[in-house]
Amino acid sequence: MLNVPSQAFPAPGSQQRVASQGRSKVPLKQGRSLMDWIRLTKSGKDFTGLKGGLIEVTEEELKKHNKKDDCWICIRGFVYNVSPYMEYHPGGEDELMRAAGADGTDLFNEVHRWVNYESMLKECLVGRMAVKPAVPKDCHEGKRVLNGMLPKSQVTDTLPREGPSSPSYDWFQTESSVTIVIYTKQKNINLDSVIVDLQDDSLRAEAVIKDHSYLIHIGLSHEVQENFSVRVIENVGKIEIVLQKKETVSWKCLGDPLEKHDSFIPKKDTGLYYRQCQLISKEDVTHDTRLFCLMLPPSTHLQVPVGQHVYLKLSVTGAEIVKPYTPVSESLLSDFKEPVLSPNKYIYFLIKIYPAGLFTPELDRLQIGDFVSVSGPEGNFKVSKLQEVEDLFLLAAGTGFTPMVTVLNHALTHMSSLRKVKLMFFNKTEDDIIWRCQLEKLALKDKRFHVEYVLSAPSPEWNGKQGHVSRALLSEFLQRSLENSKVFLCICGPTPFTDEGIRLLHDLNFSDDEIHGFTA
Hints:
single chain; alpha+beta; Flavocytochrome B2, Chain A, domain 1; Immunoglobulin-like; Elongation Factor Tu (Ef-tu), domain 3; 28 strands; disordered N terminus; flavoprotein
């Protein structure tokens, strides 16, 4: 396949390249919104010139279509004519042209792997690449059984040498259960490193190991109960998935391999997998922000790591729209509100509703009992960054507060080195402050925590800080508890806020190793 060097994307002069981990959007012309694009794709217009047909595209043919008015791009083996979409692309035309006439898979994965391009560009599909991508070699279950246990699997050789060691797996059974054991060969594997989905007697188990993903995907040879258990033995890096048999019969094999079974590849190269979650409750938090509670399927094990996000997917006017959101806890601390529901089966989201938006009004219209598709966790924040930190500073604007919720809970309950954690929370008005009452209760309860509010459009009665993120505000706020204490800073909000905040932190002599910028 033709590959464009990923370091060339976004273009050096592009508006999409920003100093921080976020990226800015390019202003679109009137009538070029996502909803306008969806309407256009439903107009019956032929976007490919093939009158609904599909072709096999050779590398030589793909290379020819490299101009703005004739631009073909390959994504994961499929070729699309993106010329009609140029003016509708939020990242701008220049970004699409980086992959014109070439394989843009790496670029796509780097910038927005989560985007549902199959739905967005389905009317632009030209066909498949003639060269078939390499497929990981599947090991068929049941060829050989030793003492009721399969030999360790042969893992495909797709891993760079500097990466973690290839995992392997075995299985064994008792009269009533089947246990699958994954040997990760890495210590300190946690329950939130494991995602298991059991659906129609097919098992999909993913273990996230550093920046790689190991997948077991098997059509089970016999029926099992809906409920299962997952156990992690951290000091040896072993994962056990215990399934309960529906019938007490001896299994001759575990089952048949399904797509990408026994593969071990970089996490960035894996596609997103969604499961249907049910809306259980929805309550107002501010005048425009709601707390949504979604219930995982009973046959799913999923725990979102601290500071990471998932993607929610809804069908809007016939197109699948996907948006990232960071789960939060039910409340800031369980002391203030006893959990009514099991924390491992429910996911909570603080979401601002934009009346003129495309996604959030549709989400807000959902009724209790309706379903939303939820992906597995994504994100590059690691709690290991907080080891031995004494002073933790959190800078949040608006719903950029959401990743701070789990970071704050983790800091106050698991960081023995912590002396102080301070939150500077930027909003327009007092009515916009999310969970203000809980924040102030937390500050009273735990003397290590302190919160300051900054408003950009306060009422005349406001006596607190005013304005936008600035050097003066930050230099006063970022006072260490000790002269040489170990510090870490997290920042999240709209892209301009995050960019400016990180620039100011650098001016104040904080290093990149001491800063993590979340993408809002």
